[in-house]
Design brief:
With about 375 residues, this protein is α/β, with parallel strands linked by helices. The protein has one domain: FAD/NAD(P)-binding domain (3-Layer(bba) Sandwich), CATH 3.50.50.60. About 40% of the residues lie in helices and about 25% in strands. A seven-stranded mixed sheet has the order 5-4-13-14-15-12-16. Strands 7-2-1-11-18-17 form a six-stranded mixed sheet, sandwiched between helices. Bound molecules: flavin-adenine dinucleotide. Flavin-adenine dinucleotide binds next to helix 1, strand 3, strand 12, strand 16 and helix 9.
Length: about 375
Amino acid sequence: MHIAILGGGVAGVASAIAFRLKGFDVTVYERRDADTNIGAGIVVWPNAAFVLDQFGILDDMAAVSGRPRAMRRLSRAGEDLGALDIGLIDAGMGYSSLSILRMDFQRILAARLQSLGVDIRYGHKVARIDAGTVVHFENGATLTADLVVGADGRMASCARRYVTGDATPVYQGFINWIGVCEGEFDADTISDYWGTGERFGIVPVARDKAYWAGGAAQATIGARDPDDYRDELQRIFVDWPAPVRRVIAGTPVARINKIYVHDHDPVPAWHRDNLVMIGDAAHAALPTSGQGACQALEDAWHLANCIEAHPGNVDRALGAFTALRFQKTAGITLAGRGLASSLFNRDEAFCRERDRASRHADYAALARAMADGWSRHLPLGA
Ligand SMILES: Cc1cc2nc3c(=O)[nH]c(=O)nc-3n(C[C@H](O)[C@H](O)[C@H](O)COP(=O)(O)OP(=O)(O)OC[C@H]3O[C@@H](n4cnc5c(N)ncnc54)[C@H](O)[C@@H]3O)c2cc1C
């Protein structure tokens, strides 16, 4: 059985690893010309750590990761709004959460794929997919395969268009600037500052390095000029607590990116003919879900299991895969929207009440609920 994977991001590479580990013949096609990546960092929650363990690369990831123990919420004035005990989530799921730079994460995934004898074919941008799952690339190549896995991301997925007829993502009304910087950090603690329609998160990956995301509500999509990114951030966060101002000032401009943040409405159909979409192509969630890359890894592991469990019957395997994955990922997408609509709300009274509720939240119950939800359909537990 030959499997073609469209897209060499988190979902595509992870899926290729999962298939190769089961002995399938697999090729990955990626539009970029080389192994470059944007992005800042990722929290590998225990559900994703489980998958990385199955792939044999958890120790490699842990060696270059931070171990966050708490997520502190603070107001824009630096007042304490409570803290989530990440140790409780880890204890409930049986793996440690890790914080890692995206470049390290992708490098280790790609090295594992290479160690399994699979190369990524760069310079292959999918132009369209015709009936019968005939894939056409912009470079003139075409392909058919026994199974085509569409892992071509959230913004213009050809796989999603093939399955659903439309691949237009939904702009969710806020911008994220993301970056990586060096400095001095409390390595155990993620800091999440909440304002009115604005938010700033700092995630250490070591005592001397962190990635961060500053967000602000904006109703419409506007310009992107890298020369302006630091000034834009400094204007918005000028009077925020010192750690926020320090990371903005301390990040090289070349390491700042700006994203108008989109997701997708959940759709229950993920496959057509012998093509299935996975990762952001199937269920892009907002960064406020904290689970985008983690769910891409889960997709990879479950899809390979489903294909193996239904030999010679791709349609049944893809039906089983979608049935397993739809509700969990849809719940995560909606949870991400719920948190974003609260964090990026510009109403002062709403935000005061939100902050009051956060101060009095039952964080132990929240940690248990997160551990339960994220463990769903995985053999996890303390
Ligand atoms: C600002 C921001 C912060 C985030 N933070 C986190 C976080 O902390 N934790 C977390 O778990 N997730 C986070 N995410 C989400 C996470 O990055 C994604 O969910 C994850 O990368 C999904 O993997 P994917 O492979 O589906 O998509 P991608 O990683 O985007 O990969 C898609 C790949 O397909 C390729 N491609 C696209 N079109 C074509 C084409 N036509 N032909 C060939 N190749 C193509 C692309 O070049 C890319 O390599 C964040 C997302 C954003 C926007």
